[in-house]
Batch of 4 targets.
Target 1
Amino acid sequence: MCCFRIIQLNAKKSSPFIIPALVGAFILAGSLIVFFQLSSYQAQIIESNKDDYTKVIENTISRREGRVQTISSGIIGLYGSSERVSSAEFDRFAQTILGSNSEILNLFVLDGSTIVESYPIKEYVGHDFDFLFPDYPTVVAGQKAMTAEFAINETASLVIAVPFGYFIPEGTILSEQYKLVLLSPIDDNEVLYSVAKSGGASGSVVELLQKEKDNAITVEYKTNLFGHKLKKYYDLRYVLWDASFEAQSYEHTIILVAGVVLSFVIPVLLVRTNLLRARLQEKSEALERANEELKKVEKSKDEFVTMIVHDLKNPLLPIKAYSEILLSQKLGQLNEEQAKRLHSISTSAITLQKMIQDLLDANKLELGKLRLDIQEGNLSELVRRTMSELEPEFRKKGVAVSLELQDVSCRFDSMRMGQVFQNILLNALDFVPDKTGKIHISLKSEGGNAVITIADNGIGIPKDKIDGLFAKFYQVSTDKNRRYGGSGLGLSVCKGIVEGHGGMIRAESDGEGKGTTMHIMIPLAGKSA
């Protein structure tokens, strides 16, 4: 107030235009401050919304892809547990799986390209898949669908028909006005799926205006789902426009043009700025809550899978035990064919039991429920004991094993580390040649760590495949005619166990045909607190 009076006194002495000029300058300065402040906050809100929606889309696709992988693992496990699966068995199993995955359109089992099993649409059985569905995108039950292919064995494959709307279902985007389009990976002008919402009403016919395209975000997600028709892994490319992505530039223009007469509105605009901040906070909190709910659903799913897998183990125990009793011929003599069939039952039960244990351990690792009983022990003795247990397998295949073991003691879980050694050695046994295969195991103490190296002269690994080797369900070869089976869980479980000891595991290979070396390192003093 004192300064204003001084200005008034000086103005009377100089010019009557000074006060209006100063007031105008103050108003203009205030208007400019508000203009730039609003522009900055609005740009932050838009970028934050774009980042949040990108994360929501990527996380939702990841979870949905995981459900498809789980379904495929279950069906592959069904076929791996039996030499022949009847149509009734397949239907019962498929009905159980689709009971909690009703969005899946259909499950196909192909022998070559012939459909031998189909659920729930049975009339496809006996037809050639590529003849029934010659075009891309494949239309199943009147809907455009992804046809994800998984190898069951050398001749059979599983195809899961998933509608393109499955990955980002309606309701995923928490907004009252948005447009979402899924573009074909082959043709940018072809729309595989679209959904829009405006004023509370939803629709599936979407047309993006040029202005909306300019402000939209493109989210590209590379899946691990191999397309039967596409003959490559699916890349999902979504274009999302949301009303919150549009800058309200007309407000800024009004502020600049009417700045002289809007001096009283400046406080109101600042309140509006705070409201914009509050809206950003509320939207962020809503998105966080939605993500937390999705995490809870995912955790419930993992706990359910763990329970189901645990229940699957129970019938295997009597199957394995009775087959071993019969093979011992204590209950009577067996002819050669009977013994061969019983041996196949026993081997399949053991294989399925290992797959179930790997899946159970993998889910325990994800839920943080895998407990380690870490005690002081002699690691070299554990390696020798594991080799002794596997020696008949190596002898049967004619594989030479050499040991170079120092006497190393450290803190570790004997059962779980034995599981790691056995898994890696059996992998090496699978991939080395008969009669000429060689495996070298070394153990030494180095830099406060126990270092285990397992090297083989097997088929090796392409260098571009090594990074994904320890990922859950990862397969180096996804060809349905691949020679080597497995669930893709063993090395993922090994990684979790080794890291649970505070250690690390990595693979090394110079390429195909040049063998593989696995390196394991765990602290001598055990995992630090």
Note: The mean pLDDT is 79.
Target 2
Amino acid sequence: MTDKEILFRKKISNYYIILIGMIGWGFIFYSIPYATFTEKPIVLLLLMILMLLSEYFQIPLFSIRMFSTMTFPILFVMNAYFGIHTALVVFAFVLIFESFHHKRSLPSTIFNIAQYTISLVGADWLIKIGLSNYSLAFPYENVLIIFSFTALYFFINNVTNDLLFYIRPLPFTTGEWKDKALQEWVIATMSIILLVFLDTYTSYLPENIIDFTIILFLSIWIVITMTISILTKARIEKKRLNALSILSTELNRNNTNDLNEKKNLLADTFNANAFVLLAKENHSWKLLLKDGQVNSEVAWSDDMELYLEEIPEMTIVTGKDLEKLPSNTIFNKMILSQIFSPLIMDNEKVGMLIVGRVSAIGFSFDEIRSLTVLSNVLASTLKTRSLLLENEKLLIVEERSRIARDIHDGIGQSLAGIVFKMESSLRRKNENKGDILNHQIEQWIEQLRESLKELRQSIYSLRTCPVEQYGLKRAIQEKIRKTEEEGIAKITFSQKGEPYALGYQIEKVIYDIFRESLQNSVKHAKAKKIDVMLKYGREQTMIKIKDDGIGFSLYDKLISGQSEPHFGILTMNELAHKFGAKLEIDSAEGKGTEIRLGIRHFSKEEKA
């Protein structure tokens, strides 16, 4: 959707909000002179208090972006007790208070109150028309009124709301509409059940206790609502913290090629319509993540980089001030408020989190506090990631230097020695006119084989490890997938525990030992079934590879491993020991093999 289309839709949706607002608020102002507050004032006050509690404790039943309330039964009772005019005025007052408390925008407040007013007036008017034409014997008439009034109220309310969702430029998917419709259907059904129960139960009670009974059951209803709201919000908060933990793990990886697959984690940690996560590397800004109403190509300019550098603390920008920002090129025209949160660690700005909302009201105090916590975690994560990147660069330089020394001291010296011997033999042959002996040739060939073996090992060390490309879990899954394509063995993979960052070198060791164990199970053990388990525990990370192959004698394998090239059991054990890990191998001839590798969190790499 282009900016021109967005602006056109916003203009039409504003006209629609004004139209609904004029109709709804017209009914409210018309009802004020006719509202009565003197008849049963205590009952009216108690109903208003229950209504306030219901609106305060909103329930996100199916989506954290959609909130509903259980106010309708109270509104229905208030309408039955005091009439439509009093119900409208009191309900409008409650909604104004609720909107002020949650800091909703003025257009949103006007529209919400107006649409509820239209729904209530429409349902009441249609019911009165129906009753004037049809009459049923008691008690079916009351049941029909409850059912019809509820259905009409929710129908008018949802049609009015859905039409706005359709007009406005903000996307509203079929899945979101289904969630919303199901949410409203659940509330409507529960309301009908409660109201029918109250009508039936109170019909058998003395008149002097009916008011008390209705207030009592509505109070129980609100207590249940408050409990559901608190528990649901606690579940959402747990989900948010879990997403934040996983996001931190993913950001700690050196490779960020697959971070776009994790961007929903950031959306789960903070409810927003758009966000951009930037990292500062080598005095320049790098885009790590983006989602929502963000331009397909984020325009970078010197002015924007300068603006990002000058932001000292969390800054909220709304309204016409957005047009003055060079960063306005990040989001499209739907975003009406932005918040810039610098990610600062040890007095150093390591990144920037920019969040956008389609609402011009901005962000509440609780949201800002939540965003502050998120920013602190992200700052720590990006700082750790930066240190890991620097450490990896140093390791790469050291590894290249080591390989250069190995080639010079090993392969280079061996080849130079062979060349020297061959030249010497050739000179003796020319001087004495003799032949080169076979054992000399065999000796040269053996030395060349050793040099070729060292060369292959050096080439293997230079290869890009799949862990660097995909991460540990995905690298293991890719290796399993490729192995299964050969059709030799059935391989199952499972992961236990919440994943956390281990560092590239440790993950590489885990992957190398896993790969060699898998290869041994397929090629040497002739296994038909292999189970692989990766477990993230409190004290250590473990990988287990178990097969149903022919097995082997561990003693014989260790003896033969002295002469095996490249990656035998001895080499695997040396690697594990280097990183403070524990390698265990259980095998016997005819009974399969189980290999377990456990690496403690505080390994030698981490201590160094």
Note: Confidence is low (pLDDT under 50) at residues 254-258, 602-608.
Target 3
Amino acid sequence: MTTPADLHGRILARIAKSTGQRPSRAADVLAMVGGAEPGFWAAVEQLYRERRINTAHIQKKGDPEPWLALWPTGLPPSSSGWTSNSHTALFVKPRADDLFQAFAPRSAPKPAVAPKPAPAKKTETKKEPVMDTPTNARRAHGTLQAELAKHLTGVSKADSWRVSQLAEKMFDDPQNIRFALKALVAKGELAVIEVQNGGRTAAAYYDPATEPAPEAAPASLPEEPVPAAVVTAAAEVLTTIAEAAAPAPVEPEPAAIAPTVERRAPTPLYRAGDLTVMEVAEPPAPERVEFALWDDGRLTIAAQNEILLIPADATKRLALLLGVPGNQPVSNLGA
């Protein structure tokens, strides 16, 4: 037959390793101890009154209802005086390890931790100011354009700057930067191109002075002036051509010819001997100038041992200048 003292000992043995952080469930202890349930609960009440165990109702997350928790206090049983009616402590047989379990630690001892080394002294390094100009400082009118022009001087098209980059560099609002850049582009001090920026196009600005100057057109050779004798000779040739190409004049009928009237020479107003006749030397023979008009419209002029070839378009212009009508049937003539 199980005595109450034996039942107390078995209950304490089952919950010996329990603590307040890890208590034992009363229902589990009842299943391990065995025996009648009323006797078990009477023993639990007796141990609680003797302050040998602690109890608590606990309901953790996931528990359907609270449950009774048990864990030992580690105190020896209280002894009663000789004059009282309670002498149960005199008849409890102590075990050899009861005193050791009473003062045993309820958790594993913490391992010794090596002391941390003293932290090294921090050496403060001087930091350069991040912002040269505060963002809320207002610039004088026109200074932003001057700063942008100075910053972009010598920047090529390959190294062009976007508005966001300039705003971060100048510590100013992108809208102000955009207006100043448009004004500089209108003045011709900057140029703008479209660049790719993350799948989109953005305006980028650079110095147009870095672009190579466009190649100048080759200078045309100076036109040599045509000698006056050549022009005069060409005019005579074209006049001859026009007269040859002109239709022959129609002679009027004899009946239509008006009668001629003989007129006497007027009497001279000077007397004989008033005029002195002098012999005039004959003018020198003019230089011989030869012309040749070809079927393709070219004109060749030979004068003073020089040959000048005038192309067809220049011959046509010369004919228009001299008043020769166009679209006249002209035969190949040479002089």
Note: The longest helix spans residues 228-245.
Target 4
Amino acid sequence: MLSFLRRIFVDSWLGRIMAVLVFIAFIGWGAGDVLTDLFNGSHSETVATMGHHTLGREEFSAALQKELAATAQRMGENTPAKLSEELRQQVARAVLSRLVMRELVQEIAEEYGFVISDDLLRKTVFSLPYFHDSKGQFDRKLFDSRIQQAGMNEKKFLDIVKGELLSQAVLQPIAAGVQASEELVKRAFAYSYEQRQIARVEVPMAAFSADPLPAESELHRFYINHPWLFSVPEFRKVRVVLLSANTIGRSLDISETQLRQAYDANLAHYNRPESRNFVLFNTEDQQKAKILAEKWKAGTPLSEMKDLAKKEKISVVEMAEVTREQIPLAELSSSLFGADVNKVMGPLKTSGGWAVFVVNKTNPAVKISFEQARKELHDSQAAGQAVGLLPERVQKLQDALAGGNSFDQLPADLGAAALEGTLNREGMTVENRPAPLPVSESVKQALLKDIFSAHKGDHPSVAFGPENTYYAIEVEEVMPAHQLDFKTHLASIRQAWQEQSRRHKAEQEATSIFLAARAQDKGVMALSKLPYKAVISPAFTRSNPPADLASGLANVVFALKKGESTMQANRGGYEVITLLDVMAADPSQQKEAYTQLQQSLTEAQQNEIQQFFVQSLMDREKPKINNKAVEQILAGFSGHS
């Protein structure tokens, strides 16, 4: 849910206000009674004092719970009680520092006479999409409902917004003059957007026949020396109850009217015309266009084509998802939409000069009817409601299990998903297929860890997983790991031996190709009698390597020099790779990306300046900390209080 809100507010400071609303609601997984009276106006103790400002016990508790939960999640634990005492103390100090800094900034704002007008406060709250109806208008009933779900009243929420606005009034002018240097942006851009093109030669194991099967005694030695190939891991038969905003959302009824309104509001998304991605060179000189087309058709890399165009002062344009109607020249539009993919076209005479172009990709028209979009519309509309319902449903699930109820006795209106099956630590079934777990990879890994940490016969309890997912586990049966019997599984052992034989032959062949390629300036492209076809990949950046490139190999490719080769094992055999071309990033051709990076680096430096200023305030004001209150609150997360 937090990530959902971050997307809504684009990581703005207003998003942090809404995050307060969210994390306050998550109080169900083990904080004892620390947060029972959250934001009810009761401040039995003050945690810190900064001038006229104080940090209340309840607010510190809420922030600490959120941070401890996130830390536990990153460390693969489902509760902060499993974190070491030292780590919990470190997290508490970090949270306390952050909150004290916020109060100090607000103290300074008041000292300098900053005032947030009621009009600004009202406009800010009204602008928050979290409180908007389907028409994008502020909805008073929705506002009241959502702050109530978070356990807050209107005054407390408005105080939080006002405090954030005061902080911005102080901090923004401090950072206003900070700008990332041109040299820093250029270096970062060159690193991030440099492209590389490679040639790949696949050497598959399937191309080789295995050696004749050896005697049974040799097979037995192979069996003994490769125990990992012939062992069966531990399996567990389990029942799981999953509860998240997604599972709740799937159980909610959304009216036909709401679905229709959402569809009409997003009609442009569901009905998109055919479009093209292309690279186009344009010049008024027909002869230059002809030379350009000849070179490109001869296989000159795009990076060299761009260099030539720059030298000859020929304009170049790279466009993505351009529709026919968006191209103002009729003759160019017709040619672009009639061209084959990756074929150099032109020179083409247009009213704007002579064009030479390549269509990189065709994007077919998309027309999704209301009925086809119904599920997506339901899920998106239900998500907003489910987020608010999650804390209440988690508490209901906890109460049911704490009362001794079995999974079969759980309330039917929880909106939870029930799963049952047998799987191993890798999430594979006994048929060696991925278990159909309807969760993300991070939730899956946390779930598997807890499944294999539980004991048969334990009464299930609610655990907190990644991405605000809650689950309870019941282990019904444990099937211990064991080694396959040699005699019984002799056929499988023979098959494994043959596969090993084919892999060895593929490795020998790939090694010989690699050694030959390494001796050539153009690597595998210089080898004329290759038994396997060299495939040239499209150019890619560090962050966007080919999907089928082995994990980590992109880093190897970006460490190579032009013409150098490398060899890598993959699932089906081996591949030999040669770096064909290095295309330096060109800010003049990627102005939007360059500007975005410049803005990101500037924001990072502005944040650093602001943090330095706040730290100087702490050094000057020396806030008073109530260590006893901090220790008492922290004890509530130890699992022993």
Note: Residues 1-44 have pLDDT under 50 and may be disordered.
